[in-house]
Design a protein that fits this description.
Elements lengths: L19 H13 L4 H13 L3 H10 L4 H20 L4 H14 L4
Length: about 110
Amino acid sequence: MSDAPAYGKMNKKIVFTENDGRHAKLVVRLKYDNLRQSEFFRACISGYLEQDERIMSFIDDLKKQSASKKKKSKKLRLQGKELLNDAGFSDTQLDDLFDLIAEEHPDL
């Protein structure tokens, strides 16, 4: 997972509220794991955006959908990965491809 943003400014805030008890537990757990809140949340966001299988498995469990739809979603995700791997693209090449698309079509 990349630490540096691919583009844009670091000026967006993501904010939500939580109760005192859960926040305290989070702070203690992060200290125990030697992580800062920003590191933790950026890693979670990166894993989600990069479709990390571990995060996506968790998200599939989190989604309110039928078991058959979850199974189909997982199958399609795996097929997509296999197609990209079979096409011979490396992760770096795929990132470059998406960067080129973003440059050509900034409104997307």
